[in-house]
Amino acid sequence: MLRFETAGESHGECLVATLTGLPAGVPVSTEYINRQLWRRQQGYGRGGRMKIETDCARVVAGVRHSRTIGSPIAILIENKDWKNWTGTLPVEDRDSEPGKEKPVNRPRPGHADLAGAIKYDFKEARYVLERASARETAARVAVGALAKTFLREFGIEVLSHVIAVGPVRLEREAEWEEIAALSERDEVLLGCVDPETEGRMKEAVDHAYRTGDTVGGIFEVVARGAPPGLGSHIAWDTRLDGRLAQAIVSIQAVKGVEVGFADQGARSYGSGVQDTIHYHKPRREFYRGSNRAGGVEGGITNGQDVLVRGFLKPISTLRRPLESVDLTTREPALAAYERSDVAVAPAAGVIGEAMVALVLAQAFLEKFGGDSLGETRRNFEGYAAQVRSY
């Protein structure tokens, strides 16, 4: 079974990611991993942390001669900001430096601060903040790059784009070629395929900057080339749409998810929502008249593009802080301010790509198995022949 874990704090020494279950023989390019890490750091509205960090993956286990060897893969990502926090967050108590404490006594509304401090019986929220931070997602993007590389061996590509920032929304569907071109850009503004809409998105971010506020958005992840048959209808936790939804909502600041055109469908009649089924005799294959289901029916991929959208709330840390309570005095106070972003939709899309790729790769290996890439390929090709002959 493919599974991953991450470890590390926002201002700790490093982030750590492990990925277990990838077959032997999958090609690995640190240049490609670092490109995905770079994409995660881009976008108009990012905070000062992105000026400090230049994320670079160091693969320390599970890869030799640029190929996986079947054992767990471990990746380290250095936190360059650690040098500024060595006296604040030492591993051993004897290393602590008096006067270096940076307690978070005024929890921020919308963040994990207060709930986490209560849960773990901390007197303040510094440790909660350190792990709850979206800095953790750099580790997800690193292992997600490996999942994307694996899927590409079978013709599956996973990309993203931004369809809304604050009140500004892209009012048309994006073409795959536009999304692919977007992923190759070396300058990233707000990750929208339409320049005019992206310009208005920038105006929304500028307004948030001027007023000390933050702004949310919506990103869409598109997986092209997934074969029919990934996932299952037989149990609640095997349904692929449910697994994709959980993966996307697990991303910090994401409060909602949509598979296909769920919001539009909920406001329509059934006759205008379902994807009609047709058969192309010369190609000997089924196809659908639309893709409102987002490539998943009954918890199973149907061969169309998998479409998943994540709905981001505005970042919880505001330069114009909201009302809170001091955890020491229990008196009213303004929430703490930690260096933060104003808008994160393009970065969230890249993180969404990683999570969708990991879920699809897991479902792919559940179906086709294989301890080596060659074995997985043989199993997949046998199934593909079965699909063509259906």
Question: What is this structure, in a nutshell?
Answer:
33% of the residues lie in helices and 20% in strands.
Verbal overview:
- There is one protein chain.
- The protein is α+β, with helices and mostly antiparallel strands and 390 residues long.
- It has one domain: Chorismate synthase, AroC fold (4-Layer Sandwich), CATH 3.60.150.10.
- The protein is 33% helix and 20% strand.
- It has 11 helices and 17 strands.
- The strands form 6 sheets. The protein has a 5-stranded antiparallel β-sheet with strand order 8-7-9-15-10.
- Strand 7 and strand 8 form a beta hairpin.
- Helix 1 packs across helix 5, helix 1 packs antiparallel against helix 10 and helix 8 runs antiparallel to helix 10.
- It starts with a strand and ends with a helix.
- The relative contact order is 0.17.
- The model has no long low-confidence stretch (mean pLDDT 94).
Average of per-residue pLDDT values: 94
The end-to-end span amounts to 28 Å
CATH topology name, in short, is Chorismate synthase, AroC fold
**CATH architecture assignment name:** 4-Layer Sandwich
Roughly what percent helix? Answer: 25-40%
Rough shape? Answer: globular
Radius of gyration: 22 Å
Strand order of the largest sheet: 8-7-9-15-10
Observed structural traits:
single chain; 390 residues; alpha+beta; Chorismate synthase, AroC fold; five-stranded antiparallel β-sheet; four-stranded antiparallel β-sheet; 17 strands; globular
Topology:
Elements: E1 3-7, E2 14-20, H1 30-41, H2 49-52, E3 57-61, E4 63-64, E5 67-68, E6 73-78, H3 113-120, H4 126-132, H5 137-152, E7 157-165, E8 168-169, H6 176-183, H7 195-211, E9 217-224, H8 240-249, E10 254-259, H9 262-266, E11 277-280, E12 285-288, E13 296-297, E14 300-301, E15 306-312, E16 323-325, E17 332-334, H10 345-368, H11 373-389
Antiparallel strand pairs: 1-2, 2-6, 3-6, 4-5, 7-8, 7-9, 9-15, 10-15, 11-12, 13-14, 16-17
Helix pairs in contact: 1-5, 1-10, 5-10, 8-10
